[in-house]
Amino acid sequence: MAEHPITPAPELVKQWLADAVEKIGFESSLYLATRAAQWGSDQELEACCAFFDQDWADIETADALRAARRQQQSLKERALAAARIELDPTGRNGALIIRALEQLP
Q1: Please, what is the angle between helix 59-69 and helix 26-53, to 10°?
Q2: Nearest to 100 by CA among 92, 39, 40, 5
Q3: Which among 82, 97, 90 has a CA at the least distance from the CA of 30?
Q4: How many CA atoms lie within 13 A of 81 on its CB side?
Q5: Angle (nearest 5°) at CA 11 between 9 and 12
Q6: pLDDT (tens digit, 0 to 9) for every residue of the chain, 105 residues total?
Q7: How far apart (Å, rounded) are the C-alpha atoms in residues 84 and 46?
Q8: Alpha-carbon distances, residue 95 vs 2, 46, 59, 75, 88 (angstroms)
Q9: CA angle 46, 49, 51 (to 5 degrees)
Q10: What is the pTM of this model?
C-alpha cells in the first residue's frame, strides 16, 4: 500500500501513544484520533500557505489564511464540544446542560 503524502513521523506517533497511555479506553482512542486530525489539518494548512508563499508573492494572504484557520475557540465553544462528548445528549440532564450552554452569549 502506498504511503499517504500526509503521514506523521514514527517518532510523533510514538509520542502520541505514550501520551495516550495515561487515558483509559475510549478516551485514549479519542485522544489519538484528535491528535492525528489536528496534525493532518496543520500539515494541510501549511501546504496551502506555502502555495501563497511561493516566490514571496502573497505572504499576506498566507498569514491571513493561517490566522483565520487557527483562531482559538471561545470558552463557550470548548464547553459545548466537551459537553457533547462527555454527556448523553439524549438524557434529560445532558440535553439541559447543552441547551443552557448554547444560550450563553
Answers
A1: 160
A2: 92
A3: 82
A4: 7
A5: 65
A6: 456 777 888 898 888 888 888 887 778 888 888 889 989 988 888 888 888 777 666 778 888 888 888 777 777 877 877 777 777 767 778 888 888 888 888
A7: 30
A8: 44, 38, 45, 19, 7
A9: 115
A10: 0.52
In whole angstroms, give the CA distance from residue 62 to residue 83: 34
Q: Which residues contact 81 (CB under 8 A, 6 or more apart)?
A: 73
Distance CA 68, CA 76 (A): 19
Q: Which residue has the cell 491528535?
A: 35
**Contact call for residues 83 and 95 (beta carbons, < 8 A):** no
